[in-house]
Design brief:
Elements lengths: L5 H19 L7 E10 L3 E6 L5 E5 L4 E5 L8 E5 L5 E9 L2 E7 L13 E7 L4 E2 L5 E3 L2 E8 L5 E8 L4 E6 L4 E6 L5 E5 L16 E7 L2 E6 L4 E6 L11 E4 L7 E3 L5 E5 L4 E5 L5 E6 L9 E6 L8 E6 L14 E8 L3
Antiparallel strand pairs: 1-26, 2-3, 3-4, 4-5, 6-7, 7-8, 8-11, 9-10, 12-13, 13-14, 14-15, 16-17, 17-18, 18-19, 20-21, 21-22, 22-23, 24-25, 25-26
Length: 342
């Protein structure tokens, strides 16, 4: 007759739980890292979006421009558009096939401050855009203004809300709120105003909610100087369902990408790193360190969209403009390809 051993069962249960926790917390690791393109020194590459054909669109803070970068190395980067009467181009997201919403405005990488009322959002239509192997423009993009934001303090992160309705969400990092914008009419309003989005009092530059992205009914966002990665459940129209909660005290996060499993890959420019935050809230450094120039001043991340690069995380950098590596090293802003091999 079998006698049930309570102690042995308890030990087995503990081991199984430990195994499950360990499996859930195993981070992805970079199987290879390469520079896709490095721009000249003092170039701050701010944000990134991927086209369905695999080409990457990147914005600059150091100049109000959008460039197309070929991650497969066949073409030299091509200037897609330069916005008028602005110092910088910031958040970017696809709102229809090959039509992107882009923020422009006056945020200076010299003074690290913004000009209230200087921000606008544009449609950049690259369906007809074509460039040569040398970056020469063969057929230009079509660019139209969606709206000006006279009340906007520092429009920054941007994400698609509803493709059918043509709505997007924008982080006003200076005001510490999220705006809802109709890209067809230009109408906009504050849709989420949460304490976890506010800039940290007494800290310069003034920077609260920063990168924003939607996954599985939640809006995820970083608050850079509060060192938090947060989420808030939202209705389909973008309104919050209850208060936001902190997922992780991940450090000074900027923008990020989220994979299908809900793992976030957060850029930390001040730490020169990219950090994975798992769906369970565990944190792991994927690449870089404080004294490394591999992703110095990392700013944003985006997964590739083709069969060749769907496991590749593309990361933009400012080269350390906001905080030189070892106190004096500043590289050119880059697009870096990190193959996660998943």
């Amino acid at each position: 007759m079998y006698h049930f051993n309570t102690a042995r069962f308890a030990l087995l249960t503990l081991l199984l739980r430990s195994a499950l926790v360990s499996t859930a917390a195993i981070p992805h690791s970079a199987t290879s890292i390469r520079n896709v393109w490095e721009f000249p020194n003092e170039t701050w590459v701010e944000n990134i979006a991927a086209r369905l054909n695999g080409q990457l669109l990147v914005t600059f803070i150091s100049s109000p421009v959008v460039y197309q970068v070929d991650p497969f190395g066949a073409k030299t980067p091509a200037l897609v558009h330069k916005f008028p009467e602005s110092l910088a181009a910031l958040g970017i997201a696809e709102i229809q096939h090959d039509i992107f919403a882009v923020i422009s405005g006056n945020w200076s990488d010299k003074t690290f401050s913004s000009t209230t009322g200087s921000f606008s959002v544009w449609k950049v239509d690259v369906r007809s855009f074509e460039s040569g192997v040398d970056g020469r423009i063969i057929s230009p993009a079509t660019v139209t203004k969606i709206s000006d934001f006279p009340e906007g303090v520092f429009l920054n992160g941007l994400t698609l809300l509803d493709k059918n309705m043509g709505t997007i969400l924008i982080a006003d990092s200076g005001a510490g709120v999220v705006l809802k914008v109709n890209t067809n009419s230009g109408g906009h309003e504050v849709i989420i105003d949460d304490p976890l989005m506010k800039p940290k009092p007494g800290v310069f530059p003034v920077l609260g909610v920063n990168g924003i992205h939607i996954h599985d009914g939640f809006l995820y966002f970083t608050n850079t100087f509060e060192n938090t990665f947060n989420k808030v459940q939202i209705h389909p129209d973008g309104a919050a369902i209850g208060p936001a909660v902190t997922v992780s005290h991940d450090g000074p996060g900027d923008d990020f990408a989220i994979d299908a499993a809900g793992n976030a890959y957060v850029t930390q420019g001040a730490q020169n790193t990219v950090v994975e935050i798992t769906a369970e809230g565990a944190e792991f450094t994927i690449v870089g360190n404080l004294n490394s120039t591999v992703v110095a001043g990392s700013t944003a991340a985006q997964f590739g969209r083709t069969l060749l690069d769907r496991n590749v995380l593309y990361v933009t950098t400012n080269g350390g403009i906001a905080g030189p590596v070892d106190g004096y090293i500043i590289d050119g802003g880059k697009v870096v390809a990190i193959d996660l091999g998943v």
